[in-house]
Fold these 2 entries.
Entry 1:
Amino acid sequence: MGPPASEQARHPLGNGVDVPSPTSGGTAHVLQGERALATFQTIDMTHKLDGGPAKTKRRRWIMGASRGMELGAQKYHMSREQLLERHVKDFLEIHSSFGQRMGDGKFKPTREEVAWMSEAAMNSGPFWDHYVPFLTALQSQASDEQFAEWGVRAAKLQIIGSYAQTELGHGSNVRGLETLATFDQKADEWVLETPTLTAIKWWPGGLGMLATHAIVYAQLWLHGKCYGVHAFMLQLRDHEHRPLPGIELGELGPKMGDNGHDSGRLRLTGVRVPRSNLLARYQWVTPDGRYEKPEAVASGPSVPLHYSSMLLTRASWVQLAGGQIAKAAMIAVRYSAVRRQGSAGAAVEGAAERQLLDYPVQRRRLLTQVASAYAVKFAARRLLGDVKALEDPHVPVAEKARRMPALGAESGTLKAMATLMAADGIEDLRRCCGGNGYLLSSGIAALSLDDLWHVTAEGDFVVLLLAAARFAVKRLSAEAISSAQAKPSLMNSVEDWMDAEKILEEFRRISAVRFADAAVAVAGAKARGCSEEDALNEAAEQLVAAAAWRGYQIFMEAFWAEATGTASGDEGAADMTPEVRVALLKLCALFGCHVAAQGGAPASLQGGMSSATAPQGFAGQARQRLCQDLRVDAVALVDAFDYEALYEASKLSDQDWSEPFQGYSAFLRPSLDVAYLQKGSLQAAASATALESPEGSLKSPSIAVSQSRL
Amino acid sequence: MGPPASEQARHPLGNGVDVPSPTSGGTAHVLQGERALATFQTIDMTHKLDGGPAKTKRRRWIMGASRGMELGAQKYHMSREQLLERHVKDFLEIHSSFGQRMGDGKFKPTREEVAWMSEAAMNSGPFWDHYVPFLTALQSQASDEQFAEWGVRAAKLQIIGSYAQTELGHGSNVRGLETLATFDQKADEWVLETPTLTAIKWWPGGLGMLATHAIVYAQLWLHGKCYGVHAFMLQLRDHEHRPLPGIELGELGPKMGDNGHDSGRLRLTGVRVPRSNLLARYQWVTPDGRYEKPEAVASGPSVPLHYSSMLLTRASWVQLAGGQIAKAAMIAVRYSAVRRQGSAGAAVEGAAERQLLDYPVQRRRLLTQVASAYAVKFAARRLLGDVKALEDPHVPVAEKARRMPALGAESGTLKAMATLMAADGIEDLRRCCGGNGYLLSSGIAALSLDDLWHVTAEGDFVVLLLAAARFAVKRLSAEAISSAQAKPSLMNSVEDWMDAEKILEEFRRISAVRFADAAVAVAGAKARGCSEEDALNEAAEQLVAAAAWRGYQIFMEAFWAEATGTASGDEGAADMTPEVRVALLKLCALFGCHVAAQGGAPASLQGGMSSATAPQGFAGQARQRLCQDLRVDAVALVDAFDYEALYEASKLSDQDWSEPFQGYSAFLRPSLDVAYLQKGSLQAAASATALESPEGSLKSPSIAVSQSRL
């Protein structure tokens, strides 16, 4: 239960080392004390999180690349333009030589490593769009010749790309894009056009300021026939970084966070690019205007193969979400260890203040988010492994096409749930830091803001969950439905809800039941005469709930596999100590009973109502016991994330203000009773002067104070 | 169910008026169409919300004071210093003459009117702290002589005040404050001191930049004895706005939002103020160092009477929370009416896109927040009425002291729940606007950010709920406990959950059951040997849940009273039309079944799985039906809030950036393949030139496009 509440916190002048003073909070010893309580070695847990000691070494090497570039709280005082400048400078400093080697085919970071880089970024910005969606799209959709021209230059940072898909009027529904690419056979060119206000490309990172090129998604029109959305390479800016003719570029304006990232808009008026700018790995147009596909694609199943770049983006966002919850949990747990507070309405006057960590509601809020961070990190590793397997060049295109839909549903579910869990979880952790969490200098405030857009970007969470559920429900047999509905719950005690294996089994059952319920709802609507589409729309609430539960099931599966050392591709499994295993099994069970206790949905899916009203019941009681149990490991569990401390001082604020503030003379001063203020300041001066004279009753007020208390 | 999805949205070039074009989204007709569907007259609902036509008139007059001061999206491009300057300018322009009249006793805005003013503020800032906590504290705690000196000047804006209570190490626990006020009898002065780092005054609005004076809360020490926390008047700055000796002032730095509001810190080193600067309505110190109280207070019950300023602050925050949910709901509902989207995975290629309002999950998220806005607004009116009754000078001090604890618990509960519902609800509404909700220019993003601090400020929500629950649970008789536990639920059908009166009765029952559960948990812990304090801490989860349910009960009570025209002090009850009543009863039931469906249904309290994500449960089904029913009123229900449209363009962003961006030449250009970019731009120029020649195959690409589609 942690060290007993110390008396030190109550005596401002204390009586030893590391006590509160005018220059110290007297808390330097607190975290050391917490660390001594842990039931496992922190480094062992770090190895587990990374996937073995070798990966820890590699991750530290990668994350070390940005050492010395920390902006600290300074970044909250920088303009957007300054943030972008700094991003460009730092990013090129780190990546230029790697980019050259990558372009020459001598270096290729793994997807996991790219995600580590994103996590380590001190000031993230639009180069992410260049290397992740833009380059990934080239890798998957460009022909070899095209890749040699654009891909190699992009890797070497000789051209900078943006990924221009979404439009002002069109987000998740890619098929509804309005941008047109009309083939002009005589000129052997595509005419690119955004014909309406709602067709303007809207949001692409880097488009507004940084990019020289973009991959533009547009409806391909050939001899009066539309072939659907295709990707086209477009040069945006010339060698002096001026927009080319017919291209109107702009930036969308300040956002809630992530302001080093320029978000662009693009209006195209009669812009022409060569016929060969259509990305041509899976189709091309001949000079005489025929639309052709390679044999393997033409004869294979019809699947949007260019979605593979989307799968990768989703997988990295899941990993990033885990990292962001982890960082926020680290700040909030450490803050809650150091911060003490008197209990509200405490009956005993002068009772020692408790550490925030020892308040049950606070402890539960913190530890369940720690559990979420582990769950999301482990699920990200599983998803990255699955996506990597799909990228294997030895897998035939047809096989890839066969696997893609299920992976699309799973990645969409995980992306939706992980980004929701991150957005809601980080915000709750921020609130755990009280008012100070509202200051950007706390670090945790910006974590909350910078990530918030992931919830709705690249697939809104409701849209993704619906799509995943539709996919699953259409494949559900009548037999599967009745067998799911017939299976009873085996959870009959608090102990059942403390057992990770039983919880996993229960989550599988609930997920199946939820899908069965959704299928029944869809069938019911159809029986009442609804079309397939209307029936699916009517059952949307059930479908979303089912997909959310499938997500929780995957998180539990991934967590369980890691805790038991059975995760596929876990190079560190052999190194796991029994102590780490015990702690992970508790944390895994905590994740599960928390999901159950809060009703199986993140607050966002419940309409924004907070889960402050935690229900009791078996799952709730199990959660309470596990939180008591894991209390001693709280600090070690977040230490294991292996981040640098993120606290920064608030002193930098002074540079933003003049004294007196701008507007004082023109507006405030004419209202003030200046004579009265002057009188008051003269009194204060007289009082200070009296103090300095030998008759002054108190030489040094602070000594006087200390004497008066002894 | 709204108008059928129009074909217009699919055809970029359309065939009539108000259709998509390069300069129009073609959506101007949409809201007019929605308004025509409503079942009630919008103005009747506005009157209801305001409390009658006379109040609507008064509110519009008050809110109109800031007309012409709208900053629009421009404010997101202003520095903090510019925001403060503008706040000072605009605030003084509006308030100077009223301030004079208020100081002369000729004008006093009601609490409700003050809250309307806060809602109308275009750029809120630290004058709020001056007029709300500072002036309110003077009204309640200063002696008449003191009020004549400071209160009158404050009302006239001749001195500007801040409210310096919280410290770096001390937030909710006022008794733990470390700032010292030691009486120096010889000098007849108080010595004010912040002896430690954690004692620094931290957060007070206006303290860093604006204020000339502050009310400082400090431990009163007299002849070596501590009398607890008292309030002292301190002049901070002289007639040239320079800090006085011994006073170190600063600003805490950028925050997530609310950045026109300067948040200050204050370090005091041996600062001296006259003995008479102790606020002296309820106690004073004589020249010979005796601590005295007026007769009525000395003989009355021991209650912290200076909490009345806190009650008022809480009440205004509840009202503000209702207003902020309302504004966010207005933006999100209108956006969802105008925005169309193809359904994910829609089977029918080319099917018309639906309005977002016609997607069940989106519709539920929107309408339940509309219901929340109404519930919070009505509860705020009830609370303001109760607090106003307490301010009545005819009520004897002893009677006030008797009423204060219960009102403290109720106001704390409502403040906690309303600010939580606002923070979580506005954020969910923001997400309902997709990616565009992340842009500050959407308006809704800043609504979310600017209000977020209310959740933890002036009493963290967990601390407030705990305090309220402790208060209630200690007064619970054994009889009340067993009678609560014996009462069965009467909710047995979907219809029951569509009936606001039945839901209210059920909420009363659940709230009683929750308090009984909490009392049993406390008693159980005590029986195991826990101290009272430890037992209360151990039962914290149950106590918080009980207080939250009590909060929902109050919201339902207030809503029901307004919907049935039985709210006390409702001047507009007689004017309510039957149509308004019908709509309000539905909305009231929607609020109730949403609360139940999202985690409070009795079935979920008994262990095992909650029905929170079981939309097939009774409450969930009722919610779905009510949302279908209220669909036609969606736009009218938010129109009734009577705010100006908040949409702003994003074009202003351009002013923040240079072209090319800062850092282009120094950092990016050396990396680029300049020759390749130049080659590309020459090609583009050649292509454009070819087009201008008579041989150009397409004169105007956009006409060509339109022809190719016809």
Entry 2:
Amino acid sequence: MAEVVATNIDKFFQPRGIAIVGASATPGKPNNQILEFAKQMSLHGNVYPVNPKLDEISGLTCYPDLLSIPAPIDLIVLSVSPRNCVRVAYDIKKRREEKGDAGAVTVVAAGFREMGTEEGENLQQEMMATITECGARIIGPNCQGVVDAYNGVNTTFSVPPNTPKGGVSIVSQSGAFATSFLRWARDQKLVGINKFVSLGNMADVDFTELLTYMADDEKTKVIAMYMDGINDARSMIDVAAKVTRKKPVVVIKAGKTSMGTNVAHSHTASIAGNNDIYNGAFRQAGVIRAQSVADFYHTARTFDKQPLPKGNRICILTVVGGPSTICVDELVLTGEATLAHFSEPLKKELAKYLVPSANIGHPDGYIDMTASVTEKMHADVLKLLMQDDDIDGIIFMTTPPGFIKDEGLAEAILEGYNSVPQAKKKPLLSVMLAGNAVAKCRTILEENGLPTFEYPDDAARVMVNMIRYSAYRRQNS
Amino acid sequence: MAEVVATNIDKFFQPRGIAIVGASATPGKPNNQILEFAKQMSLHGNVYPVNPKLDEISGLTCYPDLLSIPAPIDLIVLSVSPRNCVRVAYDIKKRREEKGDAGAVTVVAAGFREMGTEEGENLQQEMMATITECGARIIGPNCQGVVDAYNGVNTTFSVPPNTPKGGVSIVSQSGAFATSFLRWARDQKLVGINKFVSLGNMADVDFTELLTYMADDEKTKVIAMYMDGINDARSMIDVAAKVTRKKPVVVIKAGKTSMGTNVAHSHTASIAGNNDIYNGAFRQAGVIRAQSVADFYHTARTFDKQPLPKGNRICILTVVGGPSTICVDELVLTGEATLAHFSEPLKKELAKYLVPSANIGHPDGYIDMTASVTEKMHADVLKLLMQDDDIDGIIFMTTPPGFIKDEGLAEAILEGYNSVPQAKKKPLLSVMLAGNAVAKCRTILEENGLPTFEYPDDAARVMVNMIRYSAYRRQNS
């Protein structure tokens, strides 16, 4: 297997300057939005609009062409018509030859291969040939470009600059899917983002190279990918199998059905490939394939925040019977997870802190603290569960009784969770079933690295994904 | 098959007066909450606290026992210790013999059969024998009682009085699950509630009788049930098969696995039964079994708001490729739904209103309006799709471009949807992928009866559920 080297990819994420070809002065237009977002997010302010019809856009000098920008530009955003993209490609080549910069290009423009026409195909080929000839790298065409939350890069018209920072890097063939993910991140404050790459037609930079790059990117804790289909699946899977030894890769792969495959093809001209083969290959490579959009979202954010379980023995800590039943069903359904075994000493200890009517260990691994629970009981019980070596992970479920205060509950949970040193930590997923009534508690837990969920089965599926990945890591370390 | 007659069930939902035995004056205590909620929600104010230690609670005369309440009371809430419940049972019997009222009892108290002890079993038996002997009906024990949003009844300590009104009636063995559902209803404003019944141990009133009752309840458009397990599954299924000829029944059934079954047993002392047998029985009876909590929630609320599809031919209308691929995958996965066929005249008409680069019918049944879409295009295209007899339902997906205004988009969608008379309506599910950025649009659509979704696969699953139920109705009418 050939070694994949991610050449010049860092130019996309750490550019000295960004040129926006096609920048517009009309508020609301995508090409104005691109400039505004790039400007707002830029750490150093080296953003250069290019538009021969304008002298200035919102305080920035506007240049007639790429060649006249005096400062170094590493990243170029192409948002002009496909024909103009081809023309500008020659400027890029020239600039690269003359000044040596212009190493990275994101082509936002659409109207290329994804059109399914000869014209689109030819335009894409000519543009690509010109740019790649000079060693520059291209993301797109028909994409939304890149975001780097830490390095202050944003070439999109759709990702607001105030997306919260975190360890999830998302790589997507669908710009809309990835930007939705980032909007959820911002609105729900449940997930933090590091890098965002919208790949579009994937004419040059692809999943394989980005996997390689992000494997070594320190701030990326989880790689989350949306995939229509890929040309060189084998090479991608080979690389993924190496990357997953270092960090989790979560994938949502479209084209499960032949009709879905047809849609994928009209979207990014990609071939979805056989679904079962992908399933097997992902599993073998330690890639977690999400079963739904919700699963993708929750799994990625939880991997970012929580340690891996050391095994598959899960404790259910609850005050609500029905949701717990649903949770346990989903947890053990695939056979990968099981309920933990409570030792007699543990049960005796637990009984000291809970009310007599509490259910401790019926069935084994299950605790119902009942509605007579107090804030303190949460801390006491969690301390015991965190210390117990026969428990690999905890799912906690509640609709807190009215007399329990949001802050007090959150503090008690954190006290229990943080009672053991980092190396002894195990995943704790909290299902908060009471809507807005527990909003403050959720916020405090999330801010302190404890993921919260609205639905019990969502949490169970995430725990199974963590168990699966953890098993892969143990077998491949 | 014996005819099920729902005797005296209306006393729970239309009581002349409600007595709350065990009412407390201490704010925050569940027994105070029950009284407050009952008072706040009561249309006529006939709420009577019973507590021998108090003369008055928050402005209401407090009675020492049930027998001393001078006004008619049809519904009694028992929230005292199990032993006291047994004692009060004799008062209920006496009152019934003397005054003829007291026909309905909800037993909130826990500590009965669900304890798995001889004592709990004996207490339940004695209480039940005493109350049922005199012809009164019981919901519980170990339950949260009932809510009727239209008739102003609330016997719970957990369902806030301001739950939005609607056509979904929920019947649940899990109080926590059902109250969470109602909290989502209130917080997200996506679903409206008619009746709520928390069944608990189900010692008397059960699913079968409530199905019978709600089938004839005009304001109930959808019956949504959470089930641990039931004693007389055959009778329930027989009744459900009749009810589903009139209105949809959506079920989430716990105990898919043996571990889940064990939890269900500890919860409500019920036997979950064989999962595959339930699957088959539900399907044959036209009962929609939800696959997840999200599926349950979204399916119930959509049945309430939308007409049934007349067939299985679905049109995908979108501006976002990736989410649409996920949606189509999920839509056609079970083989029950398919993409619609666009006639040549329809395609020509569509092309008149869309930009040249729009994708009309690749694949068949699929339209990508592209990011060059306008508000008006939504109205124009939806009009054509609503009128077309070869399309049975529409899933619309968007992250609206920045220049499209929330209100304008919502109005255009409504204009398109409402361009045909009621009898010609077909389901239109809208997936709004842009988080809070489309919050206003979602609110307007929801208020006008158009359900909105965050994730494309959620909408697809709901559409499949509607198609399945519609097919059942056509085969059993």
